[in-house]
Amino acid sequence: MTFAGTGRLLRFFLRTDRVRIGAWVLGVIALVGFTAASVKGLYPTQADLEKAAEPLYGNAAIIAFAGPTYGIDTMGGQIVFQIGSFGYATIGLMAMFLVGRHTRADEEAGRTELLRATVLGRNAPTTAALAATTLALAVTGAAITLIMLGLSLPVAGSIAYGMAMFGFGLFFAAFTLVTAQVTEHTRLAYALSGVGIGVAYGLRVIGDIGSGTVSWLSPMGWAMQMRAYANERWWPFLLLVGGAGLLLAAAYGLASQRDLGGGLVPPRPGPPRAAPWVTRPAGFALRLQGLALAGWAVGLAFFAIAYGSVAKDVADLVGDNEDIAKIIAQGGGSLTDSYFATSLLTLALIAGGFTIAAVLRLRSEETSGRAEPILATAVSRPRWAASHLAVAAAGSLVVMGAIGLAMSITYGVSIGDFGDVPRLTGAALAYTPALWVLAGVTLALFGLAPRATAVAWAVLALCLFIGLFGQLIDLPRWIVDLSPFQHVPAVPADSFRLGPVAALTAVAAGLCAAGMAGFRHRDAGF
User: How far is it, in rounded angstroms, from Cα 258 to Cα 210?
Assistant: First the structure.
Protein backbone atom coordinates (compact mmCIF):
# COMPACT_ATOMS: atom_id res chain seq x y z
CA MET A 1 0.00 0.00 0.00
CA THR A 2 1.56 3.26 -1.13
CA PHE A 3 -0.05 5.32 1.67
CA ALA A 4 0.66 2.94 4.59
CA GLY A 5 1.83 4.73 7.73
CA THR A 6 0.72 8.21 6.61
CA GLY A 7 -1.20 8.99 9.80
CA ARG A 8 1.63 7.99 12.11
CA LEU A 9 4.14 9.94 10.00
CA LEU A 10 1.87 12.99 10.06
CA ARG A 11 1.83 12.93 13.86
CA PHE A 12 5.61 12.58 13.84
CA PHE A 13 6.03 15.58 11.53
CA LEU A 14 3.69 17.72 13.63
CA ARG A 15 5.57 16.82 16.80
CA THR A 16 9.09 17.37 15.48
CA ASP A 17 8.18 20.54 13.61
CA ARG A 18 5.86 22.10 16.16
CA VAL A 19 8.22 25.01 16.83
CA ARG A 20 8.92 25.70 13.16
CA ILE A 21 5.25 25.44 12.18
CA GLY A 22 4.23 27.60 15.12
CA ALA A 23 6.79 30.26 14.20
CA TRP A 24 5.54 30.45 10.61
CA VAL A 25 1.89 30.57 11.62
CA LEU A 26 2.48 33.23 14.25
CA GLY A 27 4.65 35.22 11.86
CA VAL A 28 1.97 35.43 9.17
CA ILE A 29 -0.73 36.15 11.77
CA ALA A 30 1.43 38.93 13.25
CA LEU A 31 1.96 40.45 9.79
CA VAL A 32 -1.79 40.60 9.18
CA GLY A 33 -2.69 41.64 12.71
CA PHE A 34 -0.25 44.50 13.08
CA THR A 35 -0.91 45.78 9.57
CA ALA A 36 -4.65 45.73 10.23
CA ALA A 37 -4.23 47.54 13.55
CA SER A 38 -1.97 50.18 12.00
CA VAL A 39 -4.34 50.83 9.09
CA LYS A 40 -7.25 51.22 11.47
CA GLY A 41 -5.24 53.67 13.51
CA LEU A 42 -4.18 55.68 10.47
CA TYR A 43 -7.66 55.94 8.94
CA PRO A 44 -10.15 56.16 11.81
CA THR A 45 -12.98 57.67 9.73
CA GLN A 46 -14.57 57.01 6.37
CA ALA A 47 -13.41 60.42 5.18
CA ASP A 48 -9.81 59.44 5.96
CA LEU A 49 -10.20 56.20 3.97
CA GLU A 50 -11.62 58.02 0.96
CA LYS A 51 -8.85 60.62 1.06
CA ALA A 52 -6.19 57.89 1.25
CA ALA A 53 -7.77 55.92 -1.59
CA GLU A 54 -8.04 58.79 -4.06
CA PRO A 55 -4.37 59.01 -5.16
CA LEU A 56 -4.08 55.20 -5.39
CA TYR A 57 -6.61 54.71 -8.17
CA GLY A 58 -4.87 54.26 -11.50
CA ASN A 59 -1.36 54.54 -10.03
CA ALA A 60 0.44 51.82 -11.96
CA ALA A 61 3.47 51.71 -9.64
CA ILE A 62 1.35 51.26 -6.52
CA ILE A 63 -0.85 48.65 -8.20
CA ALA A 64 2.23 46.76 -9.36
CA PHE A 65 3.74 46.78 -5.90
CA ALA A 66 0.67 46.03 -3.76
CA GLY A 67 -2.20 44.81 -5.92
CA PRO A 68 -5.45 45.92 -7.55
CA THR A 69 -7.37 48.69 -5.80
CA TYR A 70 -10.49 46.71 -4.89
CA GLY A 71 -12.52 48.33 -2.11
CA ILE A 72 -9.67 50.49 -0.83
CA ASP A 73 -12.16 53.12 0.33
CA THR A 74 -13.31 50.62 2.99
CA MET A 75 -11.41 49.55 6.09
CA GLY A 76 -11.22 45.89 5.05
CA GLY A 77 -10.24 46.68 1.48
CA GLN A 78 -7.51 49.06 2.62
CA ILE A 79 -6.07 46.44 5.00
CA VAL A 80 -6.01 43.79 2.27
CA PHE A 81 -4.40 46.30 -0.11
CA GLN A 82 -1.70 47.29 2.38
CA ILE A 83 -0.79 43.67 3.07
CA GLY A 84 -0.90 43.14 -0.67
CA SER A 85 1.46 40.92 -2.60
CA PHE A 86 3.87 40.70 0.33
CA GLY A 87 1.32 38.78 2.39
CA TYR A 88 0.68 36.24 -0.36
CA ALA A 89 4.42 35.84 -1.02
CA THR A 90 5.00 35.22 2.70
CA ILE A 91 2.40 32.49 3.01
CA GLY A 92 3.69 30.99 -0.25
CA LEU A 93 7.20 30.79 1.24
CA MET A 94 5.74 29.28 4.40
CA ALA A 95 4.16 26.49 2.37
CA MET A 96 7.33 26.00 0.33
CA PHE A 97 9.64 25.57 3.32
CA LEU A 98 7.27 23.36 5.33
CA VAL A 99 6.69 20.98 2.41
CA GLY A 100 10.30 20.97 1.28
CA ARG A 101 11.63 20.08 4.72
CA HIS A 102 9.87 16.73 4.89
CA THR A 103 10.14 15.78 1.23
CA ARG A 104 13.29 16.74 -0.65
CA ALA A 105 15.30 17.82 2.44
CA ASP A 106 14.59 14.57 4.34
CA GLU A 107 15.31 12.56 1.22
CA GLU A 108 18.60 14.33 0.53
CA ALA A 109 19.72 13.86 4.14
CA GLY A 110 18.88 10.14 4.05
CA ARG A 111 16.11 10.33 6.66
CA THR A 112 13.42 9.20 4.22
CA GLU A 113 15.41 6.07 3.37
CA LEU A 114 15.48 5.12 7.06
CA LEU A 115 11.73 5.68 7.36
CA ARG A 116 11.03 3.70 4.19
CA ALA A 117 12.92 0.76 5.68
CA THR A 118 9.94 0.37 8.03
CA VAL A 119 6.34 -0.39 7.09
CA LEU A 120 5.85 2.86 5.20
CA GLY A 121 4.28 3.33 1.78
CA ARG A 122 6.02 5.11 -1.08
CA ASN A 123 3.63 8.07 -1.04
CA ALA A 124 3.34 8.36 2.75
CA PRO A 125 6.10 11.01 3.23
CA THR A 126 4.67 13.20 0.48
CA THR A 127 1.12 12.87 1.79
CA ALA A 128 2.09 13.47 5.42
CA ALA A 129 4.13 16.55 4.51
CA LEU A 130 1.25 17.96 2.49
CA ALA A 131 -1.24 17.20 5.27
CA ALA A 132 0.91 18.90 7.93
CA THR A 133 1.36 21.97 5.72
CA THR A 134 -2.34 22.09 4.84
CA LEU A 135 -3.23 21.99 8.52
CA ALA A 136 -0.83 24.86 9.24
CA LEU A 137 -2.27 26.86 6.34
CA ALA A 138 -5.83 26.18 7.50
CA VAL A 139 -5.03 27.42 11.00
CA THR A 140 -3.40 30.52 9.51
CA GLY A 141 -6.36 31.24 7.22
CA ALA A 142 -8.85 30.78 10.05
CA ALA A 143 -6.81 33.07 12.33
CA ILE A 144 -6.70 35.76 9.62
CA THR A 145 -10.49 35.59 9.33
CA LEU A 146 -10.88 35.89 13.11
CA ILE A 147 -8.53 38.89 13.20
CA MET A 148 -10.62 40.66 10.59
CA LEU A 149 -13.85 39.79 12.37
CA GLY A 150 -12.31 41.07 15.60
CA LEU A 151 -12.00 44.47 13.92
CA SER A 152 -15.76 44.42 13.23
CA LEU A 153 -15.23 44.00 9.48
CA PRO A 154 -17.86 42.32 7.26
CA VAL A 155 -18.11 38.55 7.66
CA ALA A 156 -18.08 37.72 3.94
CA GLY A 157 -14.93 39.74 3.25
CA SER A 158 -13.15 38.30 6.28
CA ILE A 159 -13.90 34.74 5.21
CA ALA A 160 -12.91 35.50 1.61
CA TYR A 161 -9.52 36.90 2.63
CA GLY A 162 -8.74 33.96 4.90
CA MET A 163 -9.71 31.55 2.11
CA ALA A 164 -7.60 33.46 -0.45
CA MET A 165 -4.49 33.27 1.74
CA PHE A 166 -5.09 29.58 2.47
CA GLY A 167 -5.70 28.77 -1.20
CA PHE A 168 -2.56 30.54 -2.38
CA GLY A 169 -0.46 28.73 0.21
CA LEU A 170 -2.02 25.39 -0.73
CA PHE A 171 -1.22 25.97 -4.41
CA PHE A 172 2.47 26.52 -3.69
CA ALA A 173 2.59 23.63 -1.26
CA ALA A 174 1.57 21.39 -4.15
CA PHE A 175 3.92 23.27 -6.50
CA THR A 176 6.84 22.52 -4.15
CA LEU A 177 5.89 18.83 -4.15
CA VAL A 178 6.44 18.91 -7.92
CA THR A 179 9.80 20.70 -7.72
CA ALA A 180 10.90 18.16 -5.09
CA GLN A 181 10.53 15.43 -7.72
CA VAL A 182 12.50 17.30 -10.38
CA THR A 183 15.81 17.81 -8.61
CA GLU A 184 17.75 15.84 -6.03
CA HIS A 185 18.98 18.98 -4.23
CA THR A 186 16.90 20.83 -1.65
CA ARG A 187 18.25 24.26 -2.47
CA LEU A 188 17.39 23.91 -6.15
CA ALA A 189 13.89 22.69 -5.28
CA TYR A 190 13.42 25.79 -3.13
CA ALA A 191 14.87 27.97 -5.88
CA LEU A 192 12.40 26.60 -8.43
CA SER A 193 9.49 27.18 -6.05
CA GLY A 194 10.74 30.69 -5.34
CA VAL A 195 10.87 31.36 -9.06
CA GLY A 196 7.30 30.12 -9.28
CA ILE A 197 6.18 32.65 -6.66
CA GLY A 198 8.11 35.35 -8.53
CA VAL A 199 6.47 34.43 -11.84
CA ALA A 200 3.05 34.48 -10.17
CA TYR A 201 3.80 37.97 -8.90
CA GLY A 202 5.14 39.13 -12.28
CA LEU A 203 2.15 37.87 -14.22
CA ARG A 204 -0.17 39.52 -11.71
CA VAL A 205 1.67 42.82 -12.15
CA ILE A 206 1.52 42.69 -15.93
CA GLY A 207 -2.17 41.92 -15.85
CA ASP A 208 -3.19 44.44 -13.20
CA ILE A 209 -1.45 47.39 -14.82
CA GLY A 210 -2.83 46.34 -18.21
CA SER A 211 -6.21 45.02 -19.27
CA GLY A 212 -6.32 42.45 -16.47
CA THR A 213 -6.32 39.40 -18.76
CA VAL A 214 -2.80 38.23 -17.89
CA SER A 215 -3.67 38.23 -14.18
CA TRP A 216 -5.79 35.14 -14.79
CA LEU A 217 -2.58 33.23 -15.60
CA SER A 218 -1.30 33.83 -12.06
CA PRO A 219 -2.37 32.05 -8.85
CA MET A 220 -1.70 35.33 -7.04
CA GLY A 221 -4.11 36.94 -9.47
CA TRP A 222 -6.70 34.25 -8.67
CA ALA A 223 -6.36 34.93 -4.94
CA MET A 224 -6.74 38.69 -5.41
CA GLN A 225 -9.69 38.19 -7.74
CA MET A 226 -11.67 36.89 -4.78
CA ARG A 227 -12.04 40.62 -4.02
CA ALA A 228 -12.34 40.53 -0.26
CA TYR A 229 -14.52 43.40 0.99
CA ALA A 230 -15.34 44.43 -2.59
CA ASN A 231 -18.31 42.37 -3.83
CA GLU A 232 -16.63 39.06 -3.09
CA ARG A 233 -16.12 36.39 -5.73
CA TRP A 234 -15.95 32.83 -4.48
CA TRP A 235 -15.26 30.83 -7.61
CA PRO A 236 -11.56 31.87 -7.99
CA PHE A 237 -10.96 29.78 -4.87
CA LEU A 238 -11.84 26.75 -6.98
CA LEU A 239 -9.02 27.71 -9.37
CA LEU A 240 -6.54 27.68 -6.48
CA VAL A 241 -7.77 24.36 -5.08
CA GLY A 242 -8.15 22.81 -8.53
CA GLY A 243 -4.65 23.94 -9.54
CA ALA A 244 -3.27 22.47 -6.33
CA GLY A 245 -5.06 19.20 -7.07
CA LEU A 246 -3.56 18.98 -10.56
CA LEU A 247 -0.09 19.71 -9.22
CA LEU A 248 -0.54 17.08 -6.51
CA ALA A 249 -1.54 14.48 -9.10
CA ALA A 250 1.53 15.44 -11.14
CA ALA A 251 3.75 15.12 -8.06
CA TYR A 252 2.51 11.60 -7.31
CA GLY A 253 2.93 10.63 -10.95
CA LEU A 254 6.46 11.98 -11.15
CA ALA A 255 7.42 10.34 -7.84
CA SER A 256 6.56 6.96 -9.28
CA GLN A 257 9.01 7.52 -12.15
CA ARG A 258 12.17 8.17 -10.14
CA ASP A 259 14.44 6.41 -7.67
CA LEU A 260 14.45 7.28 -3.99
CA GLY A 261 17.07 9.97 -3.40
CA GLY A 262 17.26 10.96 -7.04
CA GLY A 263 15.49 13.51 -9.18
CA LEU A 264 13.86 13.34 -12.58
CA VAL A 265 16.55 15.66 -13.91
CA PRO A 266 19.93 14.18 -13.01
CA PRO A 267 22.65 16.62 -11.99
CA ARG A 268 24.87 17.77 -14.82
CA PRO A 269 28.28 16.11 -14.63
CA GLY A 270 31.01 18.58 -13.88
CA PRO A 271 34.29 18.99 -15.74
CA PRO A 272 36.95 16.32 -15.17
CA ARG A 273 39.19 18.88 -13.48
CA ALA A 274 38.07 21.79 -11.30
CA ALA A 275 39.17 25.31 -12.04
CA PRO A 276 42.03 26.41 -9.76
CA TRP A 277 39.89 28.97 -7.93
CA VAL A 278 37.32 26.32 -6.95
CA THR A 279 39.98 24.24 -5.21
CA ARG A 280 40.49 26.98 -2.62
CA PRO A 281 38.12 27.30 0.37
CA ALA A 282 36.94 30.81 -0.57
CA GLY A 283 36.37 29.87 -4.21
CA PHE A 284 34.55 26.67 -3.26
CA ALA A 285 32.29 28.56 -0.85
CA LEU A 286 31.48 31.07 -3.60
CA ARG A 287 30.78 28.20 -6.00
CA LEU A 288 28.32 26.70 -3.51
CA GLN A 289 26.53 29.95 -2.73
CA GLY A 290 26.95 32.01 -5.89
CA LEU A 291 23.54 31.11 -7.31
CA ALA A 292 21.78 32.00 -4.06
CA LEU A 293 23.62 35.32 -3.92
CA ALA A 294 22.59 36.17 -7.47
CA GLY A 295 18.98 35.22 -6.73
CA TRP A 296 18.80 37.41 -3.62
CA ALA A 297 20.44 40.35 -5.40
CA VAL A 298 18.12 40.17 -8.42
CA GLY A 299 15.00 39.55 -6.34
CA LEU A 300 15.58 42.45 -3.96
CA ALA A 301 16.64 44.71 -6.83
CA PHE A 302 13.24 44.00 -8.37
CA PHE A 303 11.52 45.17 -5.18
CA ALA A 304 13.81 48.21 -5.09
CA ILE A 305 12.65 49.11 -8.58
CA ALA A 306 9.07 49.09 -7.33
CA TYR A 307 9.99 51.34 -4.40
CA GLY A 308 11.96 53.71 -6.62
CA SER A 309 9.15 54.04 -9.16
CA VAL A 310 6.76 55.29 -6.45
CA ALA A 311 9.13 57.79 -4.81
CA LYS A 312 8.28 60.67 -7.16
CA ASP A 313 4.62 60.52 -6.14
CA VAL A 314 5.10 59.88 -2.42
CA ALA A 315 3.88 63.36 -1.45
CA ASP A 316 0.66 62.83 -3.42
CA LEU A 317 0.17 59.39 -1.91
CA VAL A 318 0.53 60.69 1.62
CA GLY A 319 -1.64 63.72 0.94
CA ASP A 320 -2.65 65.58 4.09
CA ASN A 321 -2.49 62.56 6.36
CA GLU A 322 -0.14 63.68 9.11
CA ASP A 323 -0.02 60.24 10.74
CA ILE A 324 1.41 58.59 7.62
CA ALA A 325 3.81 61.46 7.10
CA LYS A 326 5.02 61.03 10.68
CA ILE A 327 5.66 57.32 10.16
CA ILE A 328 7.54 57.84 6.90
CA ALA A 329 9.44 60.92 8.02
CA GLN A 330 11.69 59.23 10.58
CA GLY A 331 14.65 61.42 9.71
CA GLY A 332 15.09 65.13 9.37
CA GLY A 333 15.03 65.45 5.59
CA SER A 334 12.32 65.85 3.02
CA LEU A 335 9.38 63.50 2.79
CA THR A 336 10.91 61.85 -0.28
CA ASP A 337 14.25 61.29 1.46
CA SER A 338 12.45 59.92 4.51
CA TYR A 339 10.55 57.56 2.22
CA PHE A 340 13.85 56.34 0.78
CA ALA A 341 15.26 55.80 4.27
CA THR A 342 12.22 53.76 5.33
CA SER A 343 12.28 51.75 2.08
CA LEU A 344 15.98 50.97 2.43
CA LEU A 345 15.46 49.85 6.01
CA THR A 346 12.69 47.48 4.91
CA LEU A 347 14.78 45.97 2.11
CA ALA A 348 17.85 45.69 4.36
CA LEU A 349 15.79 43.72 6.87
CA ILE A 350 14.71 41.33 4.12
CA ALA A 351 18.33 41.05 2.95
CA GLY A 352 19.13 39.74 6.41
CA GLY A 353 17.65 36.46 5.22
CA PHE A 354 20.52 36.03 2.76
CA THR A 355 23.16 36.91 5.35
CA ILE A 356 21.90 34.38 7.88
CA ALA A 357 21.36 31.65 5.28
CA ALA A 358 24.88 32.14 3.91
CA VAL A 359 26.48 31.65 7.35
CA LEU A 360 24.17 28.75 8.21
CA ARG A 361 25.55 26.92 5.17
CA LEU A 362 28.40 26.05 7.53
CA ARG A 363 26.00 24.11 9.72
CA SER A 364 24.31 22.29 6.85
CA GLU A 365 27.70 21.28 5.41
CA GLU A 366 28.76 20.07 8.85
CA THR A 367 25.67 18.03 9.70
CA SER A 368 25.48 16.47 6.23
CA GLY A 369 29.03 15.16 6.56
CA ARG A 370 30.40 17.16 3.64
CA ALA A 371 32.61 19.34 5.84
CA GLU A 372 34.52 16.45 7.40
CA PRO A 373 36.44 15.43 4.24
CA ILE A 374 37.48 19.06 3.74
CA LEU A 375 38.62 19.48 7.34
CA ALA A 376 40.56 16.20 7.06
CA THR A 377 42.88 17.95 4.58
CA ALA A 378 45.26 20.83 5.27
CA VAL A 379 42.30 23.25 5.42
CA SER A 380 41.96 24.50 9.00
CA ARG A 381 38.65 25.07 10.74
CA PRO A 382 39.04 28.87 10.87
CA ARG A 383 39.92 29.04 7.19
CA TRP A 384 36.93 26.91 6.19
CA ALA A 385 34.52 28.90 8.36
CA ALA A 386 36.02 32.19 7.18
CA SER A 387 35.37 31.24 3.55
CA HIS A 388 31.61 31.05 4.06
CA LEU A 389 31.66 34.08 6.34
CA ALA A 390 33.38 36.02 3.56
CA VAL A 391 30.62 35.08 1.14
CA ALA A 392 28.04 36.30 3.64
CA ALA A 393 29.88 39.57 4.31
CA ALA A 394 30.79 40.40 0.73
CA GLY A 395 27.44 39.11 -0.52
CA SER A 396 25.60 41.44 1.85
CA LEU A 397 27.55 44.31 0.34
CA VAL A 398 26.62 43.16 -3.17
CA VAL A 399 22.93 42.75 -2.31
CA MET A 400 22.67 46.20 -0.71
CA GLY A 401 24.57 47.72 -3.62
CA ALA A 402 22.12 46.14 -6.06
CA ILE A 403 19.22 47.52 -4.00
CA GLY A 404 20.67 51.01 -3.96
CA LEU A 405 21.48 51.05 -7.67
CA ALA A 406 18.09 49.67 -8.70
CA MET A 407 16.16 52.11 -6.54
CA SER A 408 18.21 55.16 -7.49
CA ILE A 409 18.29 54.45 -11.22
CA THR A 410 14.53 53.84 -11.30
CA TYR A 411 13.97 57.08 -9.42
CA GLY A 412 16.31 58.86 -11.82
CA VAL A 413 14.36 57.58 -14.82
CA SER A 414 11.08 58.79 -13.29
CA ILE A 415 12.33 62.35 -12.65
CA GLY A 416 14.78 62.57 -15.58
CA ASP A 417 17.79 63.22 -13.34
CA PHE A 418 20.37 60.67 -12.19
CA GLY A 419 22.19 62.95 -9.76
CA ASP A 420 20.89 61.01 -6.73
CA VAL A 421 22.36 57.67 -7.81
CA PRO A 422 25.60 57.92 -5.76
CA ARG A 423 23.77 59.32 -2.73
CA LEU A 424 21.09 56.62 -2.63
CA THR A 425 23.52 53.82 -3.40
CA GLY A 426 25.70 54.97 -0.52
CA ALA A 427 22.63 55.11 1.73
CA ALA A 428 21.87 51.48 0.90
CA LEU A 429 25.45 50.39 1.58
CA ALA A 430 25.29 52.05 5.01
CA TYR A 431 23.10 49.15 6.20
CA THR A 432 25.80 46.57 5.45
CA PRO A 433 27.38 46.68 8.97
CA ALA A 434 23.97 45.86 10.48
CA LEU A 435 23.85 42.79 8.24
CA TRP A 436 27.35 41.90 9.39
CA VAL A 437 26.09 41.93 12.97
CA LEU A 438 23.49 39.32 11.95
CA ALA A 439 26.30 37.30 10.37
CA GLY A 440 28.26 37.60 13.62
CA VAL A 441 25.31 36.45 15.72
CA THR A 442 24.81 33.45 13.43
CA LEU A 443 28.50 32.50 13.48
CA ALA A 444 28.59 32.85 17.27
CA LEU A 445 25.65 30.46 17.55
CA PHE A 446 27.32 28.07 15.10
CA GLY A 447 30.55 28.02 17.09
CA LEU A 448 29.23 28.14 20.65
CA ALA A 449 25.76 26.55 20.46
CA PRO A 450 25.43 24.76 17.10
CA ARG A 451 22.15 23.07 18.00
CA ALA A 452 20.60 26.51 18.58
CA THR A 453 21.49 28.06 15.21
CA ALA A 454 17.78 28.47 14.43
CA VAL A 455 17.79 31.27 17.02
CA ALA A 456 19.43 33.42 14.32
CA TRP A 457 16.11 33.46 12.47
CA ALA A 458 14.35 34.53 15.67
CA VAL A 459 16.82 37.44 15.92
CA LEU A 460 15.95 38.48 12.37
CA ALA A 461 12.24 38.19 13.16
CA LEU A 462 12.74 40.50 16.16
CA CYS A 463 14.58 43.01 13.97
CA LEU A 464 11.75 42.85 11.41
CA PHE A 465 9.15 43.40 14.12
CA ILE A 466 11.03 46.38 15.54
CA GLY A 467 11.71 47.88 12.12
CA LEU A 468 8.19 47.50 10.75
CA PHE A 469 6.02 48.01 13.82
CA GLY A 470 8.21 49.58 16.52
CA GLN A 471 7.09 53.12 15.80
CA LEU A 472 3.47 52.18 15.18
CA ILE A 473 3.01 50.60 18.61
CA ASP A 474 5.50 52.88 20.38
CA LEU A 475 7.88 50.22 21.69
CA PRO A 476 10.16 51.16 24.63
CA ARG A 477 13.47 52.57 23.52
CA TRP A 478 15.51 49.74 25.05
CA ILE A 479 13.66 47.20 22.92
CA VAL A 480 14.15 49.26 19.75
CA ASP A 481 17.87 49.49 20.50
CA LEU A 482 18.16 45.70 20.39
CA SER A 483 18.03 45.84 16.59
CA PRO A 484 21.34 46.76 14.90
CA PHE A 485 19.37 48.28 12.02
CA GLN A 486 18.01 50.98 14.32
CA HIS A 487 21.56 52.23 14.95
CA VAL A 488 22.26 52.88 11.27
CA PRO A 489 21.84 56.59 10.40
CA ALA A 490 18.56 57.04 8.50
CA VAL A 491 20.28 58.21 5.33
CA PRO A 492 19.44 59.95 3.05
CA ALA A 493 16.91 61.67 5.36
CA ASP A 494 19.56 62.03 8.05
CA SER A 495 23.24 62.83 7.72
CA PHE A 496 25.70 59.95 7.66
CA ARG A 497 27.66 59.37 10.87
CA LEU A 498 30.71 57.14 10.96
CA GLY A 499 30.54 56.38 14.69
CA PRO A 500 27.46 54.08 14.74
CA VAL A 501 28.59 52.26 11.59
CA ALA A 502 32.07 51.69 13.04
CA ALA A 503 30.54 50.47 16.31
CA LEU A 504 28.33 47.97 14.46
CA THR A 505 31.35 46.71 12.53
CA ALA A 506 33.27 46.25 15.79
CA VAL A 507 30.36 44.34 17.35
CA ALA A 508 30.17 42.11 14.26
CA ALA A 509 33.91 41.42 14.45
CA GLY A 510 33.67 40.52 18.14
CA LEU A 511 30.80 38.10 17.54
CA CYS A 512 32.64 36.49 14.64
CA ALA A 513 35.76 36.07 16.79
CA ALA A 514 33.70 34.39 19.51
CA GLY A 515 32.14 32.07 16.97
CA MET A 516 35.52 31.15 15.49
CA ALA A 517 36.95 30.42 18.94
CA GLY A 518 33.99 28.24 19.84
CA PHE A 519 34.19 26.27 16.58
CA ARG A 520 37.90 25.58 17.09
CA HIS A 521 37.28 23.99 20.49
CA ARG A 522 34.14 21.93 19.96
CA ASP A 523 33.54 18.59 18.28
CA ALA A 524 32.55 18.76 14.64
CA GLY A 525 29.22 17.32 13.61
CA PHE A 526 27.46 17.94 16.92
Answer: 42
